[in-house]
Specification:
Blueprint lengths: L10 E5 L20 E2 L6 E9 L7 E10 L10 E6 L11 E7 L2 E6 L11 E9 L9 E7 L7 E2 L1 E5 L5 H15 L19 E4 L4 E4 L3 E4 L4 H15 L5 E2 L6 E6 L8 E6 L2 E6 L2 H14 L11 E4 L2 E5 L5 E7 L7 H13 L4 E5 L15 H4 L35 H13 L3 E8 L4 H16 L3 H5 L28 H21 L5 E5 L12 H9 L8 H15 L4 E5 L4 E6 L2 E6 L9 E4 L11 H8 L2 E4 L2 H4 L23 H4 L32 H5 L1 E8 L7 H8 L2 H10 L11 H27 L14 E5 L2 E5 L6 E5 L21 E7 L9 E4 L1
Parallel strand pairs: 3-11, 14-15, 14-16, 16-18, 21-22, 21-30, 22-23, 23-24, 24-25, 25-28, 28-29, 29-30
Antiparallel strand pairs: 1-8, 2-11, 3-4, 4-8, 5-7, 5-9, 6-7, 9-10, 12-20, 13-19, 17-18, 17-20, 26-27, 31-32, 33-34, 34-35
Helix pairs in contact: 4-6, 6-9
């Protein structure tokens, strides 16, 4: 599952140059980016100016941090802290300012012994150093000022970043690399593109279209009445009139027919002048046939009411490659509104994805109302600066000091979740809820602490202890990968299992009321740090009672054995991250994780995310499948959508597991992904020798590959727009690979022929994306804030050359240093200009990409 902390603003130490009481002197900077925070009526403004990104010729930075007092009161020499999210800070003693870790990703800047008061309108500057910055995500977020004498209030602080020209060389090199890659892309006429997406198994155009208009009726067999009604509502939104739905009839119509010899999720589609016929053996198959019809329609059909739509004549026979085609939405670390969840389900349904992994609980938030345990959302669903409060969580991931932040505070009520379940059910999407445990559980732990204190005050001690998730006398010391020292459930306590049973049963009740399928619950299981449970009195008591538990490592099997039994008694199976099916062994003096034979035959479904080159786990998914585990391929290298699209400094997103653009999921080969493991975590070509000895997938293992899932973690998503930018268009590549059969290039043995076949397939795909699907996403379900790739550009023979990944998009440029707009000159031939040339790609609708700057 990943979750290396969002490695932002990692200062190795703080060097002081002294504080000036003089008026703030504006510092020269060649460029100020939009990253940072603008705050009205802010008492302070902080400006970080990057001076050296290879300080002392090492991968570290040197910057100047200027604190400007923009308020009406002096910033005193003592008694304040500036909190911010991001980085695992290390600081040498400083007599001017100090940087200290609070918990998780929350840090603060505090005055040292020689810090001097800053009067209104005055500034102080300090020098800071740390790890080199890679992209704009590396900087602090959510800055706010808190006074020691008023610990319940935090005041947002304005923040500005000045990166200078330190990234120009790498940006220009990246643009040249993209230019070279784009040269393999052909511009294919729209009429020659496959008009059903994802690519169907068999597709043949017939040339005789059907005219869909307000006179069209829907004739549906009894098994498909729900799908027929949903189709009628879709057509009503397009044409303004809801078609009549009936069981039989003649004439031009859309017919939904049941035919038993078609695979469960498969369908057959025929369009001719007499109408549209979709045949399937199941409601799901009919539904996917309807989605194919929707992708046949022009994007304009979804933009507003039209009188008629021409549907191209064709015949399709289709069925999915995998029964599990998943997307994971993290709403815990940063929240997304219910409307965004429903919008995601609409997109998933359109592209025939059928599993929605709902990540609603984490260290930083619990987002689902559990009626039996209200504190889970009243406490765990709220983030607020109040160092003395036990009724909310502290700010994380830039949510800021107020509980009015839409990213930090929020949850789904029971009614909301039932609505989500029904919405997913009607779109043939299974919702898998995730209860993070035993690690990544801080929100739950703190919520149950609050419940305990409330009931103890009421004199109900026994009831208070019923759901505690930690031993109150535990003195264990640990630190999770994300920086928490209090985020792991104590698995020795009966109260932990009381908690899990209650949450599971409340969730089951919601599914039952929604009439939605529930076959499994995901219990997390990853990234439990060393040191946990070692000084827990509860653990000590359990180990003295149960002699099979010899070390704290054995508690892992104890815990998941009990959770597995909890689910089995409710006719559910256990899902989790890969660690639930691994055990720790010592090999050649080194600790390794290997498949645990104890649970191999227990129908555990595991999301295997570790496959980074050089990690030793490149083949872990195949090893676990070969051992008998049901594996959902969730590899970080190709499928983590929260990772930045490219190495560009201006591209938002994390990069600890590499960079994932639209092409990475496209060239992922599920049954032979080691073959296309091309880049290391820095985006450089890998040494192929590191995977030569890796374990291949066996015939048994192949049968255990359940499907594909793409997670989108939310550390850097503070709005629906942030979320959608990372989701689209990458999700289209995931949908293609999960539904469609192996393309010819994936099994071709001849390297040269493979490359030619790949270039052709990639060209066809990006043409479909650019000319059919992105225009649809401009308007579908209200429209999506998809990412537009920046142009590739290179200087050749003294001229600037440019191209674009998405055929049909326009490149515009300037030569005077200004930002290109939709009215700037269009790039049609090499630009013969010296100095600074800026280029930007624009969609037909006028939306733009990031800007590429070349100095010629």
């Amino acid at each position: 599952m990943k979750r290396i902390i969002a490695g932002t603003f990692l200062l190795s130490h703080l060097l002081t140059l002294g504080c000036s009481q003089a008026s703030r002197e504006e510092k020269a900077s060649t460029e100020t980016i939009t990253a940072g925070t603008q705050v009205q009526n802010s008492p302070l403004k902080l400006t970080l100016e990057l001076k050296d990104n290879r300080y002392q010729n090492k991968p570290q930075s040197r910057s100047e941090l200027t604190i400007t007092n923009t308020g009406e009161q002096a910033l005193p020499a003592r008694g304040w802290k500036i909190f911010f999210n991001g980085g695992r800070l290390k600081t040498a003693d400083s007599t001017i300012v100090q940087v200290k870790h609070y918990n998780g990703d929350l840090y603060y800047l505090a005055p040292g012994s020689k810090f001097k008061e800053i009067a209104p309108g005055k500034s102080a500057t300090v020098e800071v150093s740390g790890r080199s910055f890679r992209n704009l995500t590396d900087f602090p977020v959510g800055l706010y000022l808190a006074m020691d004498n008023n610990p319940k209030e935090g005041l947002p602080v304005a923040f500005e970043i000045k990166p200078g020209t330190h990234f120009q060389k790498s940006e220009q090199a990246l643009a040249a690399r993209i230019f070279k890659e784009n040269q393999a892309i052909q511009n294919i006429p729209a009429e020659k593109l496959t008009k059903v997406f994802p690519t169907p198994v068999n597709y043949q155009e017939k040339g005789e279209p059907f005219i869909l208009n307000e006179e069209t009726i829907i004739i549906a067999d009894n098994a498909f009445q729900r799908e027929a009604e949903n189709l009628a509502l879709t057509l009503q939104g397009i044409m303004g009139t809801k078609p009549v739905v009936q069981n039989q009839g003649n004439g031009k119509a859309i017919r939904l027919r049941q035919r038993q010899n078609i695979p469960a999720e498969g369908y057959e589609l025929k369009v001719d002048p007499n109408g549209i016929e979709i045949a399937a053996s199941s409601p799901a198959g009919i539904f996917y046939g309807i989605q194919s019809v929707k992708t046949l329609l022009p994007a304009s059909a979804f933009a507003g009411r039209v009188n008629a739509v021409t549907v191209p004549g064709l015949e399709v026979k289709d069925a999915p490659r995998f029964g599990y085609r998943g997307f994971m939405m993290d709403v815990a670390r940063n929240f997304q509104p219910k409307a965004e969840v429903l919008k995601v389900l609409d997109a998933m349904a359109l592209y025939k994805m059928n599993v929605f992994h709902f990540h609603f609980s984490e260290d930083e938030g619990w987002r689902l109302e559990i009626p039996s345990l209200p504190e889970l959302t009243t406490v765990g669903g709220s983030r607020l600066h109040d160092s003395q409060s036990k009724t909310s969580l502290m700010p994380s991931y830039g949510s800021g000091p107020s509980n009015t932040s839409a990213a930090g505070t929020g949850f789904y009520t029971r009614a909301d979740f039932i609505e989500i379940l029904k919405y997913a059910r009607d779109r043939h999407i299974r919702v898998i809820p995730e209860i993070e445990s035993p690690g990544h559980a801080r929100a739950a732990i703190k919520s149950m602490d609050a419940r305990y204190e409330r009931l103890v005050k009421e004199g109900k001690k026994a009831e208070a202890e019923k759901y505690l998730l930690r031993d109150l006398n535990d003195k264990s010391i640990y630190r999770s990968v994300q920086g928490w020292n209090d985020n792991v459930m104590d698995v020795s306590l009966p109260s932990t299992y009381n908690f899990l049973e209650t949450v599971v049963d409340d969730i089951r009740a919601m599914y039952k009321e929604a009439d939605a399928p529930l076959t499994t619950i995901h219990f997390g299981g990853d990234e439990v740090p060393g040191g946990v449970w070692e000084k827990s009195p509860g653990v000590k008591a359990l180990m003295s009672k149960d002699k099979s538990i010899k070390t704290v490592d054995d508690l892992w099997y104890y815990y998941f054995g009990k959770v597995n039994q909890l689910l089995k008694t409710r006719n559910l199976y256990l899902s989790g991250w890969e660690e639930i099916g691994l055990k720790k062994v010592v090999q050649n003096g080194k600790v390794n994780w290997v498949p645990n034979e104890r649970f191999a035959d227990q129908n555990f479904h595991v999301n295997v995310w570790k496959n980074s080159p050089g990690s030793g786990a490149e083949d872990l998914a195949y090893r676990m499948a070969n051992a008998g585990y049901k594996v959902i391929l969730t590899g970080v290298t190709h499928l983590y959508l929260d990772l930045a699209y490219s190495t560009s400094y201006y591209e938002p997103g994390l990069y600890w597991g590499g960079f994932v653009g639209m092409e990475k999921p496209f060239y992922f080969i599920p049954y032979d992904y080691l073959r296309n493991l091309r880049e290391d975590d820095n985006g450089n070509p890998i040494n192929r020798s590191i995977i030569k000895s890796k374990e291949p997938l066996t015939a048994k293992g192949r049968a255990n590959i359940v499907g594909i899932e793409a997670p989108l973690w939310s550390e850097t998503n503070r709005s629906p727009q942030d979320f959608e930018y990372k989701m689209m268009p990458k999700l289209l590549s995931v949908a293609e690979r999960a539904w469609s059969k192996d393309p010819a290039w994936a099994t071709e043995k001849d390297a040269a022929r493979e490359q030619n076949l790949y270039n052709q397939a990639w060209s066809e795909f990006v043409n479909v994306v650019a000319k059919r699907e992105l225009p649809r996403l401009d308007v579908y379900a209200g429209g999506f804030n998809y990412r537009i790739p920046a142009p590739g550009a290179a200087i050749q023979d003294g001229k600037v050359m440019a191209n674009i990944q998405l055929p049909g998009y326009t490149i515009r440029y300037t030569t005077n240093g200004s930002e290109p707009t939709v009215t700037s000159p269009e790039y049609t031939q090499p630009i013969d200009a010296k100095g600074t040339v800026k280029l930007k790609a624009f969609s037909p609708a006028g939306r733009g990409s990031n800007t590429v700057t070349l100095v010629n």
